[in-house]
From TrEMBL, chains A, B, C, D:
It comes from Caproicibacterium argilliputei. Keywords: Transferase. InterPro entries: Aldolase_TIM, Class-I_DAHP_synthase, DAHP1/KDSA, DAHP_snth_FXD, DAHP_syn_2. This is 3-deoxy-7-phosphoheptulonate synthase. It comes from the Bacteria. It holds the Pfam family DAHP_synth_1. Residues 84-326 form the DAHP synthetase I/KDSA domain. Coiled coil: none annotated.
Length: 340, 340, 340, 340
């Protein structure tokens, strides 16, 4: 941590401040007197120092971190890739590209089972489907809830596909555990629901953690850190587009986040091209780009009848369209070190 | 709702689609054939129609809403200002400018009581203080939790100031009710924690709802709508800065949101200049601007010793600085139809 | 164009307004009376109507365009791909992936010639190099200017590679024409320098038009329209990252812009992975993603000694690194309908 | 300037790098060995060092500036406020609040003269009006050009009000000087038209420099630095809203920029509430907020018949509305150290 002092700070103020820093945080302090400002360098573990407290001192002009504030999610301390492995042996983060597909919302047994069979046939190894739905409007369809989990399990029984579904509240954890959800999704709007993250840290179920609407890459890793700090290291990161001024797409897919997350963290990274663009015809080029940028997997919305979908119809592929996209992924994945 | 059809859609497709719309949503459909496209206008209550479902139809090029999707928060249907009134008669949204002040975190009885007395003396009518703290890092101070609520109550007993404090999880609701929290704050990171909003809709306790880090004005009102749809109409909106590319300030205070929210909604609007800028010396000019733009109140962080604060020290005023700011507010408020 | 009237507008006001619209713009007006608002639909050519003038009318609540405001750049009116062809037969927009490479700044004959030979050997068909440099600081190196153009020509003589270089001002047009610059680049900061765009519209030299730092896709196309309206239809669009709140990268590559521009316009689209990320190691994954998303070409910064580069060293590849990236592009391009 | 080295860099690499830095830039280098990284601190004048060149070195992890890269615009080196004074004695930046008003576009002698008289009567000391108009569409009205300058002069003769008008190109400079334009405006889209800024640096005419659509505060000051570096220190900064994801307003007024620019620079700061919001009814609250935040002036669009305006009608006040706003400004200015 580097602290720039104000030009008019006195020697006494400076020395008092340095003594305080050494005392409070157990760090060594290196002083460097420049022509215009004096700079302090803190040596030791500064990840737990609150940068705001330092900045609040009247002689401080600015404070900058040198070390990343995340540890368990940091590749520096865990050089090897984390591969999340399900009980049935399926993996996310290994050589196999993970393909997660299914409808935005679970709507009926017929619907979820039909979609499950179709996406499995096309190559998907995981079934996604929303039982509890976060909706901007209180008047919109909120999901089938517990019944939705049952229907997902029916589809799982039929196909063997493990289930990925979103949990919206700490109150649903027991239900999700009883239902045997294979991968618990934390949605973008809950990425900084810290109470929820902390609880999920006590499970061993893999967590698919979506990047918040305007979360930085560092904030995404800090949220992963919350889960990992509790003991659950099965975290899968998901880039799903960020909010920008551009209105043509629902969000702007931050494709750079994929190679960056792979470089600075050891956690697997999947991409959601459906939510990123919000438009069905954009799913294919965005999925291609994600694989080319090094993603470990894709999560894609597929519905047997998009115009009748109870949510997110505009971005859902039909099973036929998904067949095509999955075929393309299969073709190109080997050029990027993956197979489908 | 206005639906633009693709240029190549056939008359049969169009007629089938119109029949479906009338059937499914109970609306009348007006057709308007332009030189390049055909446009459909839906007449009736379209607030509950999911725009995505419409967009998912293969003959639809784009869909646009004409009506706002919020109703209970909409001034069109409730022309008079909502004034939130506490049992002791204190109001937010009336002629009196609401001044809410206190430390970011409650740290000790001495601290909270001292700050409470000082801010009360300066003119604050409400005491804020965090017991449960949402922190980006799992390693940062997370608040005194239940004990923090007790200390707030001690300060309330001493001063009579009603308490405003943040609730982070549905699991804390009972505790907050038992503790008699006067105004429950929903933080920016929980603005779209819909499970939480729904539960708060069943209370009568006033809710201070902070705008999310990158929430639109419409999304803020939709979150208010969640609470109001459940029966709790005591919602206070809070502008606290939005995320932009500018890095000098922590967030960018969207000052326009104040007059806009006042115009399109009937709910009271307060501004948080402390979190918006993240810098103590910016609090005064931003507070002035907020009052000048028509805010119903301000929520300001005050700490008796900012450099020793356990959180957000860099943006906290000292009690002396707050005396000055409150004095300035008192001077200018009457020019904007308020008094302190 | 669709105009929503205010709920309280009278029938007389409405009829007067409609008569004015028909009179002023020669359009037919369709009236549709909804339960809450009245909506007017304008039939005819509305591309030249200023939306602000309509919005300024006191009875208007909001105005929305149905038609795109660009025509010459619009695929609807020009369904076939534009392929920009140089006198020597080289093309951008056809089956061949265009690879444009070279240093940020031209620094010396030895430097530019060496880099030109190396990138040519690796597969680049065009040489880029800055002679006039837009720099944020007046104290930074501003380019070799006219001498830089001479050195580019020396490298062109040596290698036969056509030259792509940035023009910063209308005053440089004659110089660029005399120097025989093959493709004139308009930088991001000049994307809305309308006086410049208009002048470039009178040339036949191809223009590489970079998207502005925070330009929308529509604004980029409107700037292309400025050039095309003057008679120069040789416009190449360039996505080079947009400004967002994320600070890890210099800009955020908007990968979705590639398929979108290809769909709604007929102009060729190239991607600049060097400026998008601002980091040399990100160039490869972003270049891969760009090809996978359907780009017609790439523009990549290569320097023979990046740490000694007079500008943008941090994002420049060495010739060896470029060899590797070009080799990867060659491998994957055929899967996306292109060859190198 | 602070340079963080990569953890795996060797002592020899480090020493070579340090020698190079001292040699190339004439700075002293301070080395500080931390537990995880080694940090170098550069002592001396680093404002002219290109941060990218440093970052390009293979042993460098990150580079951060401690000093601001602007000097002439920096309050640290010029503690006293700059007050821009016109030949007739009128000032911007002093005790008097500068009120600049007039139509977006000059349309006719009758129009500009009528508006000039009305705004003068209401208290404006400067007349604004566009003769050359930057328009997103090549098909929109582009201004009366040279004739517009004549009409502005006619209005100036009638009223004595000095003229503020936008210059879009270096080619217009002579025309503007001949026309005796009192204050030359550089529009948001030209804020980084460096060729133009450099030329304006050779004049003595005051420059009203508008912040770019997504320019940072530092970039705005760097553009002022370009002008000042040439010898023209009569620069007036203008905050006019920045681009964000919020779509209710055309731009988001960054009200914090006002006190920040006043603190870190000595240049006067004016606010444009008309362009910031893009909505006439927002002008009053935003103007109030600007004055309350410490602005030195306001630039407001006024048109005698907004619905018939050739540009920007939706954000123009009528003369009567401006009378009201100017009256409110007069009332509140004294509370913020200004008078009208």
């Amino acid at each position: 941590m580097i602290i720039v002092l104000k030009p008019d700070c006195t020697r006494v103020q400076r020395d008092t401040f340095i003594a305080e820093l050494e005392d409070t945080y157990g760090v060594a302090v290196n002083t460097w007197v420049g022509t215009q400002s004096t700079v302090l360098g803190l040596i030791g573990d500064t990840a737990c120092i609150d940068i705001d407290n330092i900045a609040a001192n009247e002689i401080v002009e600015s404070v900058k971190r040198v070390q990343e504030p995340y540890k368990k999610a940091n590749r520096k301390f865990h050089p090897d890739d984390t591969v999340v492995t399900l009980p049935n042996g399926l993996q996310i983060g290994g050589e196999k590209l993970a393909l997660i597909a299914g409808p935005c919302s679970v709507e009926s047994e017929a619907q979820i089972t039909e979609v499950a069979k179709r996406v499995q046939h096309a190559g998907a190894q995981f079934l996604r489907g929303g039982a509890f739905k976060p909706r901007t409007s209180p008047y919109a369809f909120q999901g089938l809830k517990a019944q939705g989990l049952d229907l997902l399990n029916a589809a799982k029984k039929e196909t063997g596909l493990p289930i990925v579904t979103e949990l919206m509240s700490v109150r649903q954890i027991d239900l999700f555990l009883q239902a045997g959800v294979d991968i618990i999704q934390v949605g973008a709007r809950n990425m900084q629901n810290f109470d929820l993250l902390r609880e999920l840290g006590h499970l061993q179920t893999p967590i698919l953690l979506k990047r918040g609407l305007s979360a930085t890459i560092e904030e995404l890793l800090m949220s992963a850190e919350y889960i990992m700090a509790g003991g659950n290291s099965n975290v899968i990161l998901c880039e799903r587009g960020i909010r920008t001024y551009e209105t043509y797409t629902r969000n702007t897919l931050d494709i750079s986040a994929v190679p960056i997350l792979k470089k600075i963290s050891h956690l697997p990274v999947v991409v959601d091209p459906s939510h990123a663009g919000g438009i069905a015809w954009l799913v294919e080029p965005l999925a291609m780009a994600a694989v080319a940028a090094g993603a470990d997997g894709l999560i894609i919305e597929v519905h047997n009848n998009p115009p009748k979908a109870l949510s997110d119809g505009a971005q859902s592929l039909t099973p036929d369209q998904f067949d095509h996209v999955a075929g393309r992924i299969r073709e190109i994945a080997p050029f990027f070190g993956k197979s489908l």
